[in-house]
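Long-time lurker, first post. I've been practising inverse folding by hand and with some scripts of my own, and I keep getting stuck on stretches where the structure tokens seem ambiguous. Below is the full token string for one chain I'm working on. Before anyone asks, I'm not after the true native sequence, just a reasonable design that respects the backbone. If someone could post their per-position residues I'd love to compare against what I wrote down in my notebook.
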């Protein structure tokens, strides 16, 4: 009679690869974030990232009056590598008797859990941009998005992505100028993309949180590519990885349970403020 062994059900190397794939598929930041692996294998847990400071909005200048130049400045931001971690405990009953595929469900949920954390950190980093648009007098719509992307002051309207709260999706769909993804033939650029406004791909994300005190949503807009003639090539966001997904498991013989844990060492950093505009809109119409 064949005996089911724990090693038949839990293979750390295979599960780690599967979880890594799940993380990659669930990362909505992948199309615009640069993944930097230069820290892998290097000593230390901090890094210093230089970046240009946004020079601010242009001003009206009267005839014959000289404009006051603004000095282009840089600063350094120091980041500490963090460890994102999640664990699941499986009983032997789960592994050999449970309905369905408990080990497969464990892989799926651990992957999503790590991806959710990286997504949240990425949005937080983007919201640190000083390049902002105040559209809080009204809910999100075509005019507000166009005005927000004009803050990039582009010569060429490059592709962008904008993250919105799922509750803002209805407001957009009611706007006649919104082109939902079922109305155009182009391939979607990002996971969760719902449509396009003025060459800006709209993606719904629960990571865009309601500011309950102000009654607004802060929606980051990211340039997916730049104008090579006039713009710095540094990406809006960089995810610095210290180590890929690592999976370990521990067997507890007295209660016949197994702990499965995963971790990833990384940090999400805003590396080009000029490629990010944070647009604020009212949450609900009056």
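-- Answer (accepted) --
I ran through it position by position. Result:
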């Amino acid at each position: 009679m064949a005996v089911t062994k724990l090693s038949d059900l839990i293979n750390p190397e295979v599960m780690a690869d599967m979880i890594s794939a799940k993380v990659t598929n669930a990362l909505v930041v992948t199309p615009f974030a640069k993944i930097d692996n230069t820290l892998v294998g290097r000593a230390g847990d901090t890094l210093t990232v230089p970046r240009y400071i946004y020079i601010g909005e242009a001003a009206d200048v009267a005839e014959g009056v000289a404009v006051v130049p603004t000095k282009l400045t840089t600063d350094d931001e120091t980041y500490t590598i963090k460890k994102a971690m999640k664990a699941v405990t499986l009983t032997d009953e789960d592994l050999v008797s449970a309905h369905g595929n408990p080990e497969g469900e464990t892989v799926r949920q651990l992957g999503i859990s790590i991806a959710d954390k990286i997504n949240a950190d990425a949005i937080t980093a983007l919201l640190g941009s000083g390049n902002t648009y105040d559209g809080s007098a009204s809910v999100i719509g075509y005019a507000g998005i166009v005005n927000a992307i004009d803050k990039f002051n582009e010569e060429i309207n490059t592709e962008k992505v904008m993250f919105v709260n799922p509750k803002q999706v209805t407001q957009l769909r009611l706007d006649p100028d919104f082109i939902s993804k079922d109305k155009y033939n182009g391939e979607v650029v990002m996971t969760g993309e719902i449509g396009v406004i003025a060459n800006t791909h709209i993606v719904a994300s629960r990571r865009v949180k309601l500011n309950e005190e102000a009654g607004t949503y802060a929606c980051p807009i990211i340039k997916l590519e730049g104008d090579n003639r006039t713009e710095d090539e540094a990406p809006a966001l960089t995810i610095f990885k210290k180590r890929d997904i690592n999976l370990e498991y521990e067997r507890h013989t007295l209660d016949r349970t197994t702990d499965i844990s995963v971790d990833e060492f990384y940090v999400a950093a805003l590396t080009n403020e000029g490629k990010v505009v944070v647009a604020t809109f009212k949450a609900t119409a009056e």
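A couple of notes from the structure itself: Confidence is low (pLDDT under 50) at residues 1-5. DSSP finds six helices and 14 strands in the chain. Happy to go over any region you disagree with.
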